[in-house]
């Protein structure tokens, strides 16, 4: 329904006059007050309408139809290497970032690099088709890389995955998946009992751990190679976590390399050679040192734990150097430490980076989507 603003203004002019008794308003002033009055009346009417159950139900139904159950099927269909950042944070609590989680889609397959806390929730919010999950590639077994696994299993099972979930990673991956299986054994029995074996067969609750052995610092292992998709694991340096892996994913003529958690490491440079995208972890030592100093009087042990993290991560400047040495196209920081809640924090985090790498650097945020179409050098970027 079109509203005739002039008519409404005239209608309510009397009331506005009444409201401003004795005030000799100009014509312009009356119009301004009139418009404000109309806005207040409309807001009041809208508020009133929103209290009517039938209106509430209609709006809720519309929202459900528009969103619930919809997933981004183009990630499985478009011939491209798709990268969706579902968690760009770290173990430090961060309201804006989930823990380590990145989705890679290529050739109809869907792999997750790590599954930290909150991964399943972020995946749902980003409408990623979790029922089509092909497998999880774990870089190592720190909690911020594995804590989300049980919910990933549950959500993908409930959305159609009936085969055991393949989980690749360093030796030790079976210990992790056996532990989660034991902890969730009762839960999975309840689910099958409640919803039936046809919808939630016991097989969907299971893990299929796939240890990827790497004999020494210089060895690599091809985790999977089929239909133009190749996933390669390599070792990085995250001592005392040993081994810790990075992964390179090639799809047709496009590529992305993931550093995993590591100090600046020659293997990331070697396996990141000419990659279209390098996703590198980064911890800003100058910010972590300030944080440690700040909490030291109240939490001295926690301050020491923070300082200890300086020994096994890469600084933003070092990651930029690694990207340059590899000749990588776009560098995206993920597993960002500390949290960066505003532009000031991001500016401090990036201090010194532009001197090393003036362009093609990005701080990853949850919901960042990169599409790398095949037979092209394009990197299409959007924030979901
Ligand atoms: Zn770690
Ligand atoms: Zn980590």
TrEMBL record:
User: Domain of life here?
Assistant: Bacteria
Q: Where are the transmembrane segments?
A: 31-50
Keyword terms, alphabetized: Hydrolase, Membrane, Transmembrane, Transmembrane helix
Q: What GO MF annotations does this protein's record show? A: 3'-tRNA processing endoribonuclease activity
A Pfam family assignment: Lactamase_B_2
The residue ranges of the Metallo-beta-lactamase domain are 98-313
Q: What is this protein called?
A: Ribonuclease Z
Q: Which organism is it from?
A: Tepidicaulis marinus
Taxonomic placement: Bacteria, Pseudomonadati, Pseudomonadota, Alphaproteobacteria, Hyphomicrobiales
């Amino acid at each position: 329904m079109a509203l005739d603003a002039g008519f409404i203004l005239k209608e309510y002019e009397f009331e506005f006059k009444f409201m401003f008794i004795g005030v000799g308003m100009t014509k312009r002033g009356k119009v301004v007050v009139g418009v404000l009055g109309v806005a207040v009346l409309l807001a009041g009417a809208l508020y009133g309408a929103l209290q009517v159950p039938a209106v509430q139900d209609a709006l809720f139904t519309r929202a459900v139809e528009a969103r619930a159950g919809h997933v981004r099927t183009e990630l499985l269909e478009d011939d491209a290497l798709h990268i969706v950042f579902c968690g760009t944070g770290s173990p430090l609590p961060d309201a804006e970032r989930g823990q380590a989680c990145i989705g890679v889609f290529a050739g109809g397959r869907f792999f997750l690099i790590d599954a930290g806390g909150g991964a399943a929730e972020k995946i749902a919010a980003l409408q990623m088709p979790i029922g089509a999950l092909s497998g999880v590639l774990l870089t190592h077994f720190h909690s911020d890389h594995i804590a989300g696994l049980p919910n990933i299993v549950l959500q993908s099972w409930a959305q159609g995955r009936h085969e055991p979930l393949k989980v690749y990673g360093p030796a030790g991956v079976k210990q992790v998946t056996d532990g989660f299986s034991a902890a969730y054994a009762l839960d999975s029995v309840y689910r099958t009992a409640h919803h039936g074996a046809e919808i939630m067969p016991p097989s969907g609750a299971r893990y299929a751990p796939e240890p990827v052995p790497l004999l020494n610092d210089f060895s690599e292992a091809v985790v999977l190679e089929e239909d133009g998709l190749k996933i390669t694991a390599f070792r990085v340096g995250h001592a005392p976590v040993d081994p810790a892996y990075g992964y390179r994913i090639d799809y047709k003529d496009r590529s992305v390399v993931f550093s995993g958690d590591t100090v600046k490491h020659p293997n990331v440079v070697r396996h990141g050679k000419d990659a279209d995208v390098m996703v590198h972890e980064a911890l800003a030592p100058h910010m972590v040192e300030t944080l440690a100093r700040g909490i030291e009087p109240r939490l001295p042990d926690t301050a020491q734990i923070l300082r200890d993290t300086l020994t096994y991560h890469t600084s933003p400047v070092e990651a930029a150097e690694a990207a340059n040495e590899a000749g990588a196209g776009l560098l995206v920081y993920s597993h960002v430490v500390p949290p960066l809640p505003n532009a000031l924090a991001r500016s401090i985090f990036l201090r010194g980076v532009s001197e090393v790498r003036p362009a093609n650097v990005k701080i990853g945020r949850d919901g960042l989507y990169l599409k790398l179409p095949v037979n092209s050098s394009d990197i299409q970027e959007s924030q979901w």
